[in-house]
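Board notes (copied after class):
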Amino acid sequence: MNGQTVPTRVVLIELDDRPAAAELALGLARAGHSIGLAHGTNAESAADGLQVKLERAGGISLAINLDEGGMARAIRLMIDVFGRLDEIACFTPPAAEAAAEAVSTFPSRRHPRVRVMDRR
């Protein structure tokens, strides 16, 4: 976090090896939104590199390793850090199912919308 003003949107994005996830994250960061990058251990270095780009673009970002607690932990961290979570953008149906299950079992003041962005 780099001391910026409160963002207009807080989004958790499933990061995978397709460029669409990174493009979505960068576009939202340029608009001043906070971005959580949910990734597996195999994508950790890519998440770190993208996190730097997001912050340079003006966004606030948080990288979350899904291998350490899964989607429920990622949702909890986003709400703890940012105070809310507006949407979860998943790029694969299994991730969307895990996110929807985590949202349904995690009590919060604001439940995010979970959607599959790209199934290619």
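Comment from the instructor: The radius of gyration is 13 Å. The beta strands are 10-14, 34-39, 60-65, 87-90, 113-116.
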